[in-house]
Write a structure and sequence with these properties.
Structural class: alpha/beta
Order of helices and strands: HEHEEEEHEHEHHEHEHHEHEHHH
Distance between the termini: 57 Å
Shape: globular
Oligomer: single chain
Number of helices: 13
Length: 311
């Protein structure tokens, strides 16, 4: 059964294709100290550079995700369904059972050496955070940065973690060769909402301090205010407070996104919300009936509040 589960990762519809397990060889690391409570599941990957489907609206065509699952445990994470491709659940397994592509750096080096590689922009942090807790041990993201820079490949990083400052030296070295950008995801500075919805992430203030450090060092950076959660972090006072905190830290909100609920993510988030606030849960059931996201009018209103606060 285990072998069958891992073979699923080779199917074409899998957004992170071509993993095969090495668990029977090296076992599962139950973690200790900072990693306690996690199961680190080492695998080798047949490919590291993932091509985005041509029909996608994303502004990049290549991504790298050295990890699968995420210890940040954000209740709303849109990547949760990817764990189901491995026969794992999109809830606790996604938060706790972290797949680690232990050969990511070596595999990437080989792929970047392909004479057909066109040195197109590569985005990291599109599926799970490249600076989640496992990175502190495996340092895969750090190695990936070095390989991208040596090959002359521009890249960007999206993260919720202050750990990125650990790699300021390699980011600065890379920025002398290729365009580099680091964006911090900060959905709110409301502490109660942050603690409830992003239990495994660093405090928003730590992310803003990290953003300030990168900016002072000359790394282009900013904040993606996302996701905006209606009824939780999506009111005018909360949006303005988040923008004000970003501006006080010397940064700028480069964009925003509202909540997107689909498949297993929808089930997980609404299940959590029912226990957190039954009345708000009922409002969400009505608002998201037959849809995966809020109306475009709400998106436009959020953008207008952010723009007004930054003016």
């Amino acid at each position: 059964m285990t072998a069958m589960r891992w073979q699923v990762a080779d199917q074409a519809e899998d957004p992170q294709p071509a993993l095969f397990g090495v668990r029977d060889v090296v076992g599962v690391d139950e973690g200790s100290a900072r990693l306690s409570g996690l199961e680190l599941m080492p695998v080798t990957a047949r490919r590291i550079l993932n091509q985005v489907p041509p029909t996608s609206a994303m502004p990049f065509r290549w991504t790298i995700n050295a990890y699968r699952g995420c210890s940040h445990a954000c209740t709303y994470c849109f990547a949760r369904p990817t764990h189901e491709y491995l026969g794992l659940d999109a809830g606790a397994d996604f938060d706790r059972k972290i797949v680690v592509k232990i050969n990511a750096v070596e595999r990437l080096r080989a792929e970047l050496a392909d004479p057909h590689w066109r040195h197109e922009h590569v985005a990291m942090g599109t599926n799970t955070d490249p600076y989640q807790r496992a990175e502190g041990r495996f340092r895969l993201t750090r190695g990936i940065i070095g390989e991208l820079a040596r090959s002359g490949t521009p890249f960007s990083i999206l993260t919720k973690s202050a750990m990125v400052t650990r790699d300021l030296d390699v980011l600065l070295a890379a920025s002398r060769s290729v365009p580099v950008k680091v964006t911090f995801s900060v959905g709110t500075v409301d502490e109660s909402v942050w603690r409830a919805t992003e239990p495994g992430t660093p405090h928003p203030a730590r992310r803003l301090d990290a953003m300030k450090a990168l900016a002072r060092a000359g790394i282009p950076t900013g904040v993606l205010l996302a996701p905006v959660l209606p009824g939780l972090s999506g009111g005018r006072p909360q949006l303005r407070a988040t923008v004000a905190a970003v501006r006080k830290a010397g940064g700028y909100v480069v964009g925003s996104r509202t909540l997107y609920l689909r498949g297993a993510t929808r089930d997980h988030f609404l299940g959590w919300l029912q226990g957190y606030d039954a009345q708000l849960h009922a409002r969400y059931l009505n608002a998201f009936r037959g849809r995966t996201e809020m109306p475009k009018e709400y998106d436009a209103w959020v953008r207008s509040v952010i723009a007004e606060a930054q003016a």
